[in-house]
């Protein structure tokens, strides 16, 4: 938008007076932040209503991205950037003596997601608005986001994250758009006068779903889409007979949108979770149909105007819920309703980990959602009947929805969708050949790949302004909207000046991060060291342990020979563990104990440090990633569906140290073997081990003296404070089979780490690799990802043509 500094300053002063009756000298950061937030809302409001109007007037097909999680991060700077007024506002505020960088810290970081899946949803809505795709987010307005993590004696402690405490400046409560969601009760079918079966309900518990909308502002365009998050409330009543039972009931209802489940890649079959899933699904679909009806089209044409995307199985109840509304409210017959439903729905699979595959006891669904239960059983009945005529009965049994007393949510999503996609090429191949092979036989054409992506705006333009400036000086700014233009940087791969500038920027970012660590953790780190970064949820399959075992090997190397020629390293970890995931919490404690041991050792000063930041989340990621030299992407091959921190780090010039897993494979294809550090088992080798059962981790302990010593350190008192954890982790690796092949991959990992140690000494060579990574990161922009969803899955329009 056009905005002069003078106009901004006027607007800012006026808004501060209007909202707070203050002038600038009296105001504090909080008032200034809310004033600026309100001002941005007013700047984008016209485009927001105009975008909506246009969607209606042109009867545009719209897509709705249903996701349990949207891990947005702070929005102030992102909104300023997308409106094109970041510098104007920064300068204007400066005139008032207000520092924008300080102001942004007032905004809480809304942690409405666990990790990659939620962050993907956030990058997607930004990219959809930027690509002018008529698509919106639909989710839950959790009162408490993901817990706040603290370390006490090295142990993770969880505290509530009350992000709404001071209000959320970006949202608008839309009372007129509230809908009712029904739980429990009895349902039966009765013929009406016209002879049609109609459902009747009694004794239901009704919940009022109230939407809170936030503007999703496109970058450098006039599109403003909507993120709609639902809040659960007790419906208004005018006859409260028992006050205390009313309060009790209110609390019970409000608990539905109270907290995000803190599990990542793990399934917990809890009733409240099922309520949450149905709550936002039902509210979202009811609101979509209400909107559709304004166009006065027959429900048979719904799929021409509406696409609904199911992000992982959490919103899989979209399938029976749309069926319910079409059958019961719109009086369609089953076959037409089913046809419409399948054409509307599409589904993304995010994991092959069996512990993450949702299955709900059918009894639980029957009691909580009696009508949905009937519909699911009917879908299942028709599916098995039809498929029994086409396929062997064993295959039908394996693919049916209701089996062994459980409803398999992935099966429901696949059967009820016209498209099923994986999130990286390798992942999609594994789905087709292994995990979902049965379904691939039934529905080969449903399967497709959409490799994940990241928004280059947040992860480069905002997080790393010095790098953005350098890129702009070298190749202009077309890459901002056509990210593959970053390729042009390759022309500078042998330009010493550019490579030196890159090195300087990395150094600057490392110093900034070091200063932050000094302030927040009172820890000094050597900025000449390699900053070796592993930031992601703590999960056994991601193998933070492999990283830690290698750190211990360096520790012993230096202790044995203080003169050992080792490049100094700072190992940076950021990771939350699910509160109920005992093993992951033990690993956190062990890392913290090793950190204490190493960081306090004078002999290791400036050679080895471990920084385990507390409360890893989007805001911390934005600080760490620009400072990273090495990106640890070391999951056991086949286990990480895609990964996205790998893309963010690459875009910021870190060198990827990786197994051939998830999108690492595509990163390797992009930059070439010389510019990435690959190690470890391949996916087919892992499956071979599974087939022949020939992995015996104890042999590695017994036959590899380096490993032997490191593993003994876990149990012989070398690491003070983590005796119990050390024993338990030792046992998992040596006694209980080492499920994720940590010991098997150790030598290969250590060898490639040693190569990094040598490569890093040659700054130009290192920066040349960094530059090739930055230049190659363009295709991993989520702009391209959503453009492919738009054209290949949703069939909705978009501005830019896909790759
Ligand atoms: C990108 C991101 C993730 C995903 O990281 P992976 O390493 O791909 O699992 C998780 N959390 C946050 C805060 C992120 O920004």
Automatic annotation (TrEMBL):
Tagged with keyword Glycosyltransferase: yes
CDD domains, per database record: GT35_Glycogen_Phosphorylase (cd04300)
EC number, UniProt record: 2.4.1.1
Molecular functions per Gene Ontology: 1,4-alpha-oligoglucan phosphorylase activity
Cofactor(s) in the UniProt record: pyridoxal 5'-phosphate
Family: Belongs to the glycogen phosphorylase family.
Its biological purpose: Phosphorylase is an important allosteric enzyme in carbohydrate metabolism. Enzymes from different sources differ in their regulatory mechanisms and in their natural substrates. However, all known phosphorylases share catalytic and structural properties.
Entry protein name: Alpha-1,4 glucan phosphorylase
């Amino acid at each position: 938008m056009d905005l002069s500094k003078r106009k901004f300053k006027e607007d800012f002063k006026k808004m501060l007076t209007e909202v707070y009756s203050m002038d600038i000298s009296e105001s504090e950061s909080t008032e200034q932040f809310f004033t600026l937030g309100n001002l941005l809302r007013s700047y984008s409001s016209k485009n927001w209503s105009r975008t909506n109007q246009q969607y209606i007037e042109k009867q545009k097909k719209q897509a709705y991205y249903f996701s349990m999680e949207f891990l947005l991060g702070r929005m102030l700077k992102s909104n300023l950037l997308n409106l094109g007024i970041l510098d104007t506002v920064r300068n204007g505020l400066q005139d008032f003596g207000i520092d924008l960088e300080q102001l942004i810290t007032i905004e809480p970081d809304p942690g409405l997601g666990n990790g990659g899946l939620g962050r993907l949803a956030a990058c997607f809505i930004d990219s959809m608005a930027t690509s002018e795709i008529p698509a919106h987010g639909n989710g839950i307005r959790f009162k408490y986001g993901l817990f706040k993590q603290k370390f006490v004696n090295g142990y993770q402690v969880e505290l509530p994250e009350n992000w709404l405490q001071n209000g959320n400046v970006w949202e608008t409560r839309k009372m007129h758009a509230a809908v009712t969601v029904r739980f429990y009760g009895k349902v039966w079918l009765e013929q009406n006068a016209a002879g049609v079966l109609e459902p009747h309900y009694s004794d239901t518990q009704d919940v009022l779903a109230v939407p809170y909308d936030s503007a999703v502002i496109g970058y450098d365009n006039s599109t403003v889409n909507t993120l709609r998050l639902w809040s659960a409330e007790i419906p208004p009543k005018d006859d409260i007979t028992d006050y205390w039972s009313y309060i009790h009931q209110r609390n019970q209802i409000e608990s539905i949108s109270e907290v995000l489940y803190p599990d990542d890649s793990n399934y917990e079959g809890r009733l409240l979770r099922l309520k949450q899933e149905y709550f936002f699904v039902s509210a979202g679909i009811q609101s979509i149909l209400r909107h559709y009806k304004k166009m006065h089209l027959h429900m048979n044409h719904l799929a021409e105007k509406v696409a609904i995307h199911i992000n992982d199985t959490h919103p899989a109840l979209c399938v029976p819920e749309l069926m319910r509304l079409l059958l019961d409210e719109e009086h369609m017959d089953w076959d037409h309703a089913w046809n419409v439903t399948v054409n509307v729905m599409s589904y993304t699979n995010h994991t092959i980990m069996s512990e993450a595959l949702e299955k709900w006891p059918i009894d639980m669904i029957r009691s909580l959602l009696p009508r949905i239960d009937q519909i699911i059983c009917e879908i299942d009945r028709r599916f098995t009947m039809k498929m029994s005529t086409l396929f062997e009965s064993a295959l039908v049994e394996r693919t049916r929805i209701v089996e062994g007393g459980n409803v398999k949510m992935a099966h429901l999503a696949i059967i009820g969708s016209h498209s099923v996609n994986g999130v990286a090429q390798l992942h999609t191949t594994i789905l087709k050949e292994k995990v979902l092979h049965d379904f691939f036989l039934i529905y080969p054409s449903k399967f497709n790949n959409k490799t994940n992506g990241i928004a280059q705006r947040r992860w480069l333009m905002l997080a790393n302004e010095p790098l953005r400036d350098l890129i702009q000086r070298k190749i202009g700014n077309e890459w901002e909207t056509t990210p593959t233009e970053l390729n042009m940087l390759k022309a500078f791969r042998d330009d010493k000046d550019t490579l030196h500038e890159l090195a300087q920027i990395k150094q600057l970012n490392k110093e900034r991060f070091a200063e932050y660590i000094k302030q927040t953790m009172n820890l000094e780190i050597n900025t000449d060291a390699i900053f070796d970064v592993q930031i992601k949820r703590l999960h056994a399959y991601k193998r933070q342990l492999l990283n830690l075992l290698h750190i211990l090997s360096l520790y012993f190397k230096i202790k044995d020979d203080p003169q050992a020629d080792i490049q100094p390293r700072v190992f940076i970890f950021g990771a939350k563990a699910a509160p109920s995931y005992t093993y992951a919490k033990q690993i956190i404690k062990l890392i913290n104990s090793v950190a204490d041991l190493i960081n306090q050792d004078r002999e290791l000063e400036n050679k080895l440090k471990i920084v385990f930041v507390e409360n890893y989340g989007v805001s911390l990621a934005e600080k760490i990633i620009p400072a990273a030299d090495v990106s640890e992407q070391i999951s056991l091959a086949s286990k990480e569906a895609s990964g996205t921190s790998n893309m963010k780090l690459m875009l910021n010039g870190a060198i990827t140290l990786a197994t051939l897993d998830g999108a690492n494979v595509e990163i390797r294809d992009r930059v070439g073997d010389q510019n990435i550090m690959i190690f470890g088992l391949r996916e087919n080798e892992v499956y071979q081990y599974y087939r022949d059962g020939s992995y015996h981790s104890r042999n590695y302990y017994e036959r590899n003296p380096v490993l032997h010593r490191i593993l003994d350190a876990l149990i012989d008192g070398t690491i003070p404070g983590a005796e119990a954890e050390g024993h338990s982790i030792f046992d998992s690796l040596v006694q209980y089979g080492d499920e994720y092949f940590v010991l098997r991959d150790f030598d290969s990992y250590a060898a490639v780490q040693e190569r990094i140690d040598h490569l890093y000494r040659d700054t130009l060579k290192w920066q040349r690799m960094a530059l090739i990574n930055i230049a190659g990161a363009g295709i991993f922009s989520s702009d391209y990802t959503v453009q492919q969803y738009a054209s290949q899955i949703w069939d909705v329009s978009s501005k830019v043509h896909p790759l």
